[in-house]
Automatic annotation (TrEMBL):
It is found in: Mitochondrion. One of its GO terms (biological process) is termination of mitochondrial transcription. The keyword Nucleus does not apply. Keywords: DNA-binding, Mitochondrion, Phosphoprotein, Repeat, Transcription, Transcription regulation, Transcription termination, Transit peptide. It comes from the Eukaryota. This is Mitochondrial transcription termination factor 1. GO terms for cellular component: mitochondrial matrix. Pfam families: mTERF. It comes from Hippocampus comes. Belongs to the mTERF family. GO terms for molecular function: DNA binding. Transcription termination factor. Binds to a 28 bp region within the tRNA(Leu(uur)) gene at a position immediately adjacent to and downstream of the 16S rRNA gene; this region comprises a tridecamer sequence critical for directing accurate termination. Binds DNA along the major grove and promotes DNA bending and partial unwinding. Promotes base flipping. Transcription termination activity appears to be polarized with highest specificity for transcripts initiated on the light strand. Gene3D superfamilies: Transcription termination factor 3, mitochondrial (1.25.70.10). Its main location: mitochondrion.
Length: 384
DNA sequence: GGCACCGGGCTCTGCCATAGGT
DNA sequence: ACCTATGGCAGAGCCCGGTGCC
């Protein structure tokens, strides 16, 4: 069909004809009315002018939709020069799915290329996402959060293959849901890129003498939904770095990786390296040994996720509150709570003369509800 | 009833660089 | 020459409660 028109393709002008033809085709397929009409003369003032100029009627439409045109121009200037776009089709499509006017405007402002997708494409992609999400609302919320994840790729077939591939890894529907909700970019990756990461993880497992590479990869992905949107280079550098630092046996390291350590594999390399160095320095200065550092990292790898300043402040808060470093090392989960929260609890416990030496520091990492219940009990028992 | 253990929930985008296509 | 599609990067925690053991 299109090849018949290629014969007509000339230096300029005729390509416009071809596009006009395409547009009419789209119209007949989707039943969607043409959004804008162009007089042929508008494109006859030379190829250069029409190529470089922004499409005025498109700008007008975008303004009517409440789009931040300045932002759109800054992000994807080429889109504003396109002759045929589908902004109104996109807007009514999204509104039909429950998106507000503001959401639509914000989506287009942040990812203008969205308006180049045909209705057919949108319907199909939406259905593919609906295989994983139960409601349109969920999808709208994600588009509002991250329009690029949904619109960046025009390859629905690749999306289909990704879903099939990720399912084939043994990830449950629930995992897929978490994955798409949390790191939607994963599904816009090329199948090949996802496959590379999975195979890389499997290789790591085998290298460490593991016997279940598939389970290993699955465990890491389901524990850290972000690995698939990281480069293998990054994840590899982190694994190498941790391996060199922890100096565990292969089997121990393998277990650690698919356990809580998985959570920190996606950190940027320098960040992890810096946090590691600072944590080591701080603990050694406080009288801990290398072994303590390792123990802390294995028991609570999130210590490396927390920024150096935050972690340092948190440690100070605990130490000043009468907690010893040894107690922290034995129960690193106390570092899981915010400094503000910990400080408030220390204060409250001081008020009732809570004895950390006798009772331990477990009370500090209770959920709010459990903490309150505990306090209440302590108060009433001392009253009696 | 109290505790330890464990995993999960929220959420993580928005920009830049570049190969490859027209 | 221009645009699209895609890879890659930096950035940086906190909280809750189910379950099973004693």
């Amino acid at each position: 069909m299109a090849s018949g028109f290629k014969v007509l393709k000339g230096p300029h002008g005729l390509s416009t004809l071809q596009q006009a033809f395409k547009c009419i085709t789209v119209q007949s397929v989707t039943g969607c009315p043409l959004q804008r009409f162009y007089s042929v003369t508008a494109n006859e003032n030379g190829a250069k002018a029409s190529v470089n100029a922004e499409n005025m009627s498109l700008l007008e439409n975008l303004n009517l939709l409440g789009v931040d045109v300045k932002m759109a121009r800054q992000r994807q200037p080429g889109v504003l020069r396109r002759i045929f776009t589908n902004e109104q089709g996109l807007a009514s499509f999204l509104q039909g799915k429950g998106a507000s006017r503001q959401t639509v405007a914000s989506i287009i402002s942040r990812y203008p290329r969205a308006i180049t997708r045909s209705l057919e494409h949108l319907e199909q992609r939406w259905q593919l996402w609906r295989n994983i999400f139960q409601t349109d609302e969920e999808i709208v919320a994600i588009l509002d959060r991250s329009p690029e994840s949904f619109f960046r790729s025009s390859d629905n077939n690749n999306l289909k293959k990704n879903i099939a591939y990720l399912s084939s890894l043994g990830l449950s529907n629930k995992d897929l849901h978490r994955l798409l909700a949390t790191a939607p970019r994963t599904f816009s990756n090329s199948l090949e890129l996802n496959r590379q990461m999975v195979e890389f993880l499997e290789d790591v497992c085998v290298e460490l003498g593991g016997t279940g590479p598939k389970e290993f990869a699955k465990a890491i992905i389901s524990r850290n939904l972000y690995v698939l949107i990281r480069s293998t280079k990054r994840v590899k550098a982190n694994i190498d770095n941790l391996r060199a630092t922890l100096k565990l046996s292969d089997a121990e390291f393998l277990t650690a990786l698919q356990g809580p350590v998985a959570k920190i594999l996606d950190l940027s390399n320098e960040y992890l390296k810096n946090n590691l160095a600072i944590l080591q320095g701080r603990l050694i200065a406080l009288g801990s040994c290398e072994e303590d550092v390792k123990k802390l990292i294995i028991g609570y790898p999130m210590a490396l996720y927390i920024g150096a300043v935050t972690l340092s402040t948190k440690l100070d808060c605990l130490l000043q509150g009468g907690i010893t470093m040894k107690q922290i090392l034995d129960r690193p989960k106390v570092l899981d709570y915010s400094t503000k929260n910990v400080a408030a609890r220390l204060e409250e416990l001081r008020g009732i003369n809570y004895d950390f030496k006798a009772n331990g520091i477990g009370i500090l990492d209770l959920s709010r509800k459990r903490f309150s219940a505990k306090i209440e009990k302590l108060v009433t028992s001392t009253d009696e």
